[in-house]
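Reminder to self: tokens first, then the designed residues, so the page reads top to bottom the way the pipeline ran.
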């Protein structure tokens, strides 16, 4: 028993934190390796045609930014209202340098990882006073599950327009929530300024994150009014900035073009959207349990560490964790709200739904689930502390908890993953490995190189390109077709300033 206690003392949470970070880093290596095979596709070219032309003609950043504004105006009037992200769409890396697209997966994953850490650190360490190493464990495990079971690798990492449209606003939203908490906690105007910038970007970019931003701000207004009215009134600044930007986005003429003349606000449809979103939220969580079971193993491991963490928190007596059921309902409401834009748009047949909403929902579900788990465990530990103080219960030493609960629980979860290997066939790392090991990734690189040789040759005005396999595994690729009037052909032609871009029809069937 003494040896076990000594081992429990050595395997403290600092050791587990390093292990969790190492696990996450190793799990991301295949994803980052595939970044060097990623290429622009479809809308990446379409939104960047004007800025690319401006850069080729002038090599002036001011000219490029002017072209970016022109792109925003064009698409705002003709196709979509998300004006802040459209501005960024037009600044795709290959506007400035060929073969620079590899930076996109690093950039998009880096932004989300950083934002998740800032959010978790603010809530776990600054608000509820959890040890930093415990926060590191939860963040690393959360991100591991998020990326290994992501619904769309293309939208999450490898498609510039998709990632900017969905993942970047999500990351900014997490930063905004962290800075909202920091401002309410400290009253520093710097956090209010950064929060306002987040509101500006979110309001002009994403319906999903805008809804989440409004919901959280409204909740803070209600709960914080009696505690600090001055700071609550200051929060009206980011709220109205986001609201104005959101209205500008909703009023875009391009929305009617894309959604049809009937596209607009309807009260009865809004009520239906709320009810249907809650229903789909419950169904989707059930689907997650059956299809992403390994992610729930990760949540269970977080819960195992969470009991110990929340025990340390409650001993300090800084946070009481009131109304756990209400908090769980609020987290479920935040998750369900991510269905609302999709449900609302289903009435308008002309609006297609990609895997972007599903990816955002997954990245909202995991932080919400982790928050709900830790909050309920905090409430439980507060109750347990009161019973101990009343003499009804005895405290369990940390070493004993680890020997009796934590270590056996970790062993059981490890055995479960060992014998139930379904996760190995569905995780992103396996998809990347199969794509690379099959030789398809290298074939894609060679095929792209042959196309780029033609597209970058200014002396060639009619570009006839070799065929490319349309199935590119985890990557995003919309191939040029034999129809020169097809969308992909058209945007590639405009980007590289050709008279014609067409794929040579294969002789084999």
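Designed residues (509 positions):
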């Amino acid at each position: 028993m003494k040896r076990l206690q000594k081992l429990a003392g050595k395997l403290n949470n600092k050791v587990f934190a390093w292990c969790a970070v190492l696990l996450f880093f190793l799990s991301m290596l295949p994803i980052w390796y595939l970044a060097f095979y990623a290429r622009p596709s479809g809308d990446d070219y379409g939104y960047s045609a004007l800025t690319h032309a401006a850069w080729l003609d002038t090599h002036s950043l001011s000219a490029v930014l002017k072209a970016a504004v022109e792109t925003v105006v064009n698409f705002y009037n003709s196709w979509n209202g998300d004006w802040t992200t459209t501005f960024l769409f037009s600044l795709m890396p290959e506007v400035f340098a060929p073969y620079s697209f590899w930076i996109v997966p690093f950039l998009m994953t880096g932004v989300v990882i950083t934002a998740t850490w800032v959010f978790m650190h603010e809530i776990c360490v600054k608000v509820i006073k959890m040890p930093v190493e415990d926060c590191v464990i939860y963040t690393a495990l959360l991100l591991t599950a998020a990326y290994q079971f992501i619904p769309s690798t293309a939208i999450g990492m490898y498609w510039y327009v998709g990632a900017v449209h969905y993942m970047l606003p999500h990351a900014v939203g997490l930063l905004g929530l962290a800075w909202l908490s920091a401002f309410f906690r400290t009253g520093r105007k710097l956090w209010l300024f950064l929060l306002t910038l987040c509101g500006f970007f979110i309001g002009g970019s994403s319906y999903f994150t805008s809804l989440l931003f409004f919901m959280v701000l409204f909740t803070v207004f209600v709960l914080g009014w009696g505690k600090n009215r001055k700071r609550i009134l200051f929060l009206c600044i980011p709220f109205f900035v986001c609201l104005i930007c959101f209205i500008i986005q909703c009023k875009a003429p391009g929305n009617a073009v894309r959604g049809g003349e009937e596209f607009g606000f309807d009260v009865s449809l809004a009520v239906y959207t709320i009810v249907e979103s809650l229903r789909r939220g419950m169904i989707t969580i059930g689907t997650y349990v059956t299809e992403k079971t390994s992610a729930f193993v990760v949540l269970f491991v977080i819960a195992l560490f969470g009991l110990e963490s929340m025990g340390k928190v409650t001993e300090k007596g800084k946070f009481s964790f009131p109304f756990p059921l209400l908090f769980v309902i609020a987290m479920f409401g935040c998750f369900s709200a991510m269905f609302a834009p999709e449900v609302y748009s289903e009435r308008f047949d002309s609006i297609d739904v990609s895997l972007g909403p599903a990816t955002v929902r997954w990245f909202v579900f995991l932080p919400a689930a982790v928050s709900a788990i830790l909050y309920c465990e905090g409430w439980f530990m507060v109750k347990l502390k009161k019973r101990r103080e009343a003499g009804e219960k005895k405290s369990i030493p940390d070493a004993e908890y680890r020997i009796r609960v934590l270590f056996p629980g970790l062993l059981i979860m490890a055995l479960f993953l060992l014998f139930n290997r379904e996760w190995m066939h569905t995780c992103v790392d396996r998809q990347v490995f199969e794509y690379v090991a099959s030789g398809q990734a290298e074939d894609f690189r060679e095929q792209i190189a042959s196309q780029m040789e033609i597209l970058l040759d200014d002396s060639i005005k009619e570009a006839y390109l070799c065929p490319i396999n349309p199935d590119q595994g985890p990557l995003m690729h919309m191939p040029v077709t034999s129809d020169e009037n097809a969308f992909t052909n058209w945007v590639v032609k405009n980007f590289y300033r050709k008279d014609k871009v067409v794929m040579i029809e294969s002789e084999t069937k």
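The longest helix spans residues 356-389.
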